UniProtKB/TrEMBL annotation:
It is an enzyme of class 1 (oxidoreductase). This is 2-hydroxymuconic semialdehyde dehydrogenase. GO terms for molecular function: oxidoreductase activity, acting on the aldehyde or oxo group of donors, NAD or NADP as acceptor. Pfam families: Aldedh. Its EC number is 1.2.1.85. PANTHER family: 2-AMINOMUCONIC SEMIALDEHYDE DEHYDROGENASE. The active site is at 255. It comes from Actinomadura bangladeshensis.
Length: 478
């Protein structure tokens, strides 16, 4: 798979290039072109021009039809997408087959359906006898595209998370310039092929590859021609982008980091809670922003929960690597820090050896820790690996306080069979998403996003359409 830029309907690979590394064995997969300031500028200019062309004039039905063709195109190249995502990330094949690729196609279908259901999202209000001016008026609201949207995505769910923004942006009639993570350029390049083949007008979808700080990401988010920025990634990167965007007061939608808590009450179905926490802490080797890194367990079931979770963590096999040597080193540095901070390592805590090609890859062991104070860096900072710290609690209020004592607020999970408790506790947790007796169960129409350092705004269903379009009120005096 050769990574290429796609600008104004043309594939090109100008700029210096950098190597793409297979995280499963450390081998070089190919090279990626690094977009220059000129490449980014060309992309923004092409996107701006496309707003004035056929795409700008297209009705909702036409845009929805184009998005369905894109979904069909992803489906038609299903195998290629799976292979590209597996090669870039080292993730288990089944994960790409059941999550990444179907969800990417699903993102385009979901927003095509939403769009077609309510074509122009126009609301009409006539309120007799009410006006701050003179006489009566008819007001109606039209939704206008924002213009050129910059989409910056991370490496952990490359295709899923970029299409989660591309689809609603296109649904609302915007044009986009996408910069995927430098670690995972391949499925974005394939998507450009699909969009090219789907007959979407030139310049509507543009793709530039490259790094973030001081490079393509920064050139794009600081570009005066960009009308909005949708970003998923680390909270610190969000700060840098916001600073850059401030120069042009560019609106942002941010999905950032987390340090997600799970609360296990003594009345929980313990089998389900253990099973759920194995999934929530270790799926994709903990490299999902929604993964649990803090588990609080009511004291009567604490010992049994820890013992069972640790046993399951030790049995895990077939898991994927960290995305890069650098990220592997970061996660291992937290494993060491945890020990220095006084943790008891009840499972994992190091890097595995396999005796095969994987030893050249970037693997770490699924790890369960206990015994740390809440002030420990290991308990406060996002690690983004297959690791959780488990601590006991004695009362419901204490559990809520522990969950909320974090700079982050993305997702949480409550395990209880007490219905009243579930409803009582859920709204008190300061996270954008609260799951009860489940994890990562996603209805694409629901609001998705975080509070505190975990993000700004919500995406999903109508919430995405609200971000990616601008309500304009038209008032006519009668
Ligand atoms: N809240 C969510 O929905 C969500 C989802 C997935 C991942 N994440 C978070 O993403 C992080 C992991 O992903 P990552 O390591 O790729 O994140 P990252 O912030 O390092 O990079 C994300 C993207 O931003 C670009 N970038 C980096 N610096 C930039 C800059 N100064 N200006 C413009 N662009 C820049 C990168 O090139 C990449 O494309 C974790 O913190 C995780 O929690 C959040
Ligand atoms: O990494 C963070 C985001 C995850 C989102 C999903 O898994 C999803 O939207 O299904």
């Amino acid at each position: 798979m050769k990574a290429e830029h796609y600008v104004g309907g043309v594939f090109r690979s100008d700029g210096a290039s950098f190597p793409l590394i297979d995280p499963a064995n450390g081998a070089e997969l190919g090279t990626v072109p690094e977009a220059t300031r000129e490449t980014v500028d060309d992309a923004v200019v092409a996107a701006k021009a496309a707003l004035k062309g056929a795409w700008g004039a297209a009705g909702a039905e036409e845009r929805a039809a184009a998005m369905r063709r894109i979904a069909d195109g992803i489906q038609a190249r299903f195998e290629e997408f799976v292979e590209a995502e597996v090669a870039d990330t080292g993730r288990p094949r089944a994960f790409a087959e059941t999550v990444d690729v179907p969800r990417a196609a699903g993102n385009f279908r979901a927003y095509a359906d939403l769009l077609y259901g309510r074509p122009e999202r126009a609301y009409t209000t006539r309120i007799p006898g009410w006006s701050t001016g003179t006489g009566e008026a008819l007001s109606y609201t039209v939704r206008r595209p924002l213009g050129v949207v910059a989409i910056i995505s991370p490496w952990n769910l490359p295709l899923l998370l970029s299409t989660w923004k591309i689809a609603p942006a296109l649904a609302c009639g915007n044009t986009v310039v996408v910069k995927p993570s430098e670690e995972t350029p391949s499925t974005a390049t394939l998507l450009a092929r699909v969009i090219d083949e789907a007959g979407v007008p030139d310049g509507v979808f543009n793709l530039v590859h490259g790094h973030g700080a001081g490079a393509a990401g920064e050139f794009l988010t600081g570009h005066p021609g960009v009308d909005a920025i949708a970003f998923t990634g680390e909270s610190a990167t969000g700060t840098a982008i916001m600073r850059n965007a401030a120069a042009h007061v560019t609106p942002v939608s941010f999905e950032l980091g987390g340090k997600n808590p799970a609360l296990v009450f003594a009345d929980a179905d313990l089998d389900a809670a253990v099973d759920g926490t194995v999934r929530s802490s270790f799926t994709h080797s903990g490299q999902i922003c929604l993964c649990t890194e803090r588990v609080y367990v009511e004291r009567p079931v604490f010992d049994e929960f820890v013992e069972r979770l640790a046993a399951r963590a030790k049995e895990l096999d077939g898991y994927g690597p960290m995305i890069s040597a650098e990220h592997r080193d970061k996660v291992l540095s937290y494993y060491r820090l945890a020990k220095e901070e006084g943790a008891t390592v009840v499972a994992g805590g190091g890097a595995p050896t396999f005796g095969d090609a994987r030893d050249g890859g970037f693997y770490v062991e699924p790890t369960v820790l206990t015994g740390l104070p809440e002030t420990a860096r290991t308990v406060r900072e996002e690690i983004f690996g297959p690791v959780c710290h488990v601590a006991p609690f004695d009362a419901e209020d204490e559990a809520v306080d522990l969950a909320n004592d974090s700079p982050y607020g993305l997702a949480s999970t409550i395990w209880t069979t007490n219905l009243s408790r579930a409803h009582r506790v859920a709204p008190r947790i300061e996270t954008g998403i609260v799951w009860v007796n489940c994890w990562n169960l996603r209805d694409l129409r629901t609001p998705f996003g975080g509070v505190k350092a975990s993000g700004i705004g919500r995406e999903g269903g109508e919430y995405s359409l609200d971000f990616f379009s601008e309500p304009v009120n038209v008032c006519i005096q009668i």
